[in-house]
Amino acid sequence: MDEQKxxxxxxxxxxxxxxxxxxxxxxxxxxxxxxxNITGAHCKNLFLRxxxxxxxYLVIAKSEKRVNLKALTSRLGEDRLSFASxxxxxxYLGLEPGAVSPFGLINxxxxxxxxxxxxxxxxxxxxxxxxxxNTATVGITFTDFEKFLSYCGNSIxxxxx
Length: 161
Hints:
By secondary structure, the protein is an alpha/beta fold. It has a single domain, classed as YbaK protein (Alpha-Beta Complex), CATH 3.90.960. Helix content is 25%, strand content 27%. A hairpin with a 6-residue loop joins strand 6 and strand 7. The termini are far apart.
């Protein structure tokens, strides 16, 4: 959606990044083909909603981990979690399917989305995400990632997956 806005905010926050362009990818499996020369942890990003559609979560986990929705539902104290619709994704993150990333939080002006982060990512020197489009991958340090999240102001929970 708004790739340039992500870069502008990174610059504003004095966060250095590396950008790697690639063909459009929609799944971790497709993206893996383009990660050979990209250092750092690669992430999967899931945009979820609860049963009533009142609560929304951006789940960020290491790409190789499996996220058990049933277990996550219980750990978050929800009744049921499911993938949010493309319409909800656009409304809350300003993103389309395939481009889900924490950089979409810049569009969540009401801080409605709770960010759930894989605790193991804290060990990574760098983390990689789409810059609001699925034709590039941007790498930043984990410290800078936390700085970016602080700027966005969303609630954050660290969990082990």
